[in-house]
Amino acid sequence: MQRQYILVVDVGSSSIRASPYEVDSEKNSLHAYPHAKCVIKIRSPRISEFGTANPVAFEKAAKTAISECIKTMHVHNKNGFKILALGFDCFVMNWLGVNEKGVPVTPLYTYADSHPGSSAAASRIRRELRDSNDLESSYQRTGVTTHSSYVTVTLKRLQYEEPKLLERVKKWQTFTSWIVGRLCGDVNNVPLSYSEASWTGLLNVRTMCWDPQTLKRFQSATSGKMPELADFDCTLKRKLRVVSSSENDEWKSLNDVPVFLAVGDGAAANVGSGCTNAKRIAVTVGTSAAARVVLNDIEKIPKGLWCYRIDRNRMLLGGAMTDGGSINEWLLNVLRFHDQSELTRGSERVEADDHGLTVLPFLRGERAPGWHDAASMTISNIKSNTTQSDIARACVEAVLLRLGSIIHLVLSSFESESVRMCGSGSVLTSSPMWCQILADVTGRTLYVSSAEEATSRGVAMLLAEALKIDISKARWIAETEDRMYEPNLRNHKRYIKANERLNRLYESILIDDEEEVEQDKEENDHGLLTCTTFRPKRKFGPLRMWCEICGKHESSHSGFES
Asked: In sequence order, what are the residues at sequence separation of 6 or more whose Cβ sits closer than 8 angstroms to the Cβ of residue 417?
């Protein structure tokens, strides 16, 4: 019998993966087909210093990954096969302007925006929201705060710095909606999924429509240029299918295959980790790091977190850091470790918080929970006997201490007594050291699946659900969640103290932008403030965590605050 597959394209910031998942209708199961998985690294330039990328380079990588994957599937399926559907996930946020012919006229803007003008643009938006008494209500409608990782800041900057570029934009898209249009021969009429739209800061996550009050603030950039909205399974309601004139076997295999709209990588990772309700919190550490939980609804979004959409029925509450595993690459380059194994061995030799260092791990600014656009990395208390392994260990611990703060905020927002903490992402699946530190930081048992690619797996599961394919007997999630890391009491107490130091350093360096006290009234040519000075108004930290081991809040455990 001819084998059937769901093909998933996972668009990351540094590589693109094409992964087939075999549908076994007799066993009601779905499982990965690793022989044909293809990973294509994005050729330079990847994401630039300012957080932009070349969409054409990403398109080339995506098409190569798809082509090579299908080519390998032909080799392993001598009797032929059928692709039931093509689906995508993509890193979020990403945003792309095209002309009337669907040709990109802007770079691909990403969550890693570090443009010099973005901080000023963010400050201007916050000021406008405060002046109109809409700061909190906007947050509750859109599910996001004002930060350079969202489209709103990009649009505000472009309004002042590059108005001529905005005039050339006829339609806004994401990378994946653009490439779906390219594959389907409908470049300007592909809808944007609720999932991807919710990561922009322009969507009302309650009504699942573009938020009119928000769009009004960016009228010159958005009027007549916003894409239609739909759920990821809109292909079931309209013809959205691959059109190819290629004679190559791999592309002929995609002719008339239904194409689904993309979902955000975080939403997909939750589903792929089996974290589809409030009983399981997904913790992912790859290039970035995040903690997320699926809820049917939420009355009020807690300060410091975001709330996005998976689909019309499910919301995603959580927080993310710009830098997670990316700290490894920085450490390798700067500290001159020979390779990752040397870095890991050196870090493992250092006891928990035994280095005396305090680190703010913000290579590219801070997202959750403090949302400081311009935050930078700080390493405090370096001495003459500090080693490269000390610095490496301190940086890893700092990332996980900040992630622990996010985890606690998420868990504090709902009844979370019996919540299971489930780890995924390339760093956690490959590094027992990172896993153990995370368990020690949070005081919670961490369960990690040995199965790779929770993100693409989640897309395959969503597509199977949409196609009404019964995968009720697919036990591969539970079966592969085979590693458990119990927290170490001694290390947990050390990390509580370490987090106290981190928060003191955080508060002494990172200033609160909720109250402007002094500002330079002179504006530059773009109308943005050239100099703004702020003073602290409220202290976000220290963040206090419930000690799972001790079973109580102790005054000595003041490292985490609810």
From this structure: none
Task: List all residues 6 or more positions away from 360 whose beta carbon is below 8 Å from its beta carbon.
Answer: 375, 376, 377, 378, 398, 502, 505, 506, 509, 510
- Residue 484: CA atoms inside 13 Å, Cβ hemisphere, count? 7
Tokens 């006891």 -> residue: 351
Determine the 3-state secondary structure of 551 from DSSP: coil
SS3 382: coil
Gyration radius (Cα) of the chain, Å: 23
Measured CA to CA, the distance from residue 474 to residue 457 in angstroms comes to 12
Q: Are 289 and 362 in contact (CB under 8 A)?
A: no
DSSP code of 530?
S
Torsion of CA 40, 283, 21, 11, to 10 degrees: -30
| Cα–Cα distances in angstroms (integers) from residue 266 to residues 1, 331, 432, 454, in the given order | 35, 25, 22, 10
Of the options 3.30.420.40, 3.30.70.100, 3.40.50.300, 3.40.50.12780, the CATH number for the domain spanning 3-261: 3.30.420.40
Other beta carbons within 10 angstroms of residue 208's beta carbon come to: 16
Contact 61, 17 (CB under 8 A): no
pLDDT in single tens digits along all 562 residues of the chain:
789 999 999 999 889 999 999 998 777 778 888 888 999 998 765 778 788 999 999 999 999 999 999 999 999 888 889 999 999 999 999 999 999 999 999 999 998 888 889 989 999 999 999 999 999 999 999 999 999 999 999 999 999 999 999 999 999 999 999 999 999 988 888 999 999 999 999 999 999 999 999 999 999 999 999 999 999 999 888 888 888 766 677 788 998 899 999 999 999 989 988 899 999 999 999 888 999 999 999 989 999 999 999 999 999 999 999 899 999 999 999 998 999 999 999 999 999 999 999 999 999 889 999 998 888 999 999 999 999 999 999 999 999 999 999 999 999 888 767 899 999 888 998 999 999 999 999 999 999 977 667 889 999 999 999 999 988 766 545 445 678 999 999 999 999 999 999 999 999 988 544 443 334 333 343 333 332 223 333 333 334 443 443 443 333 333 333 2
CATH number, domain 273-445+486-562, options 3.40.50.880, 3.30.420.40, 3.90.1170.50, 1.10.3210.10: 3.30.420.40
Cα separation, 176 vs 10, in Å, equals 10
Q: Residue ranges per domain, the chain?
A: 3-261, 273-445+486-562
- 526 close to 161: Cβ distance less than 8 angstroms: yes
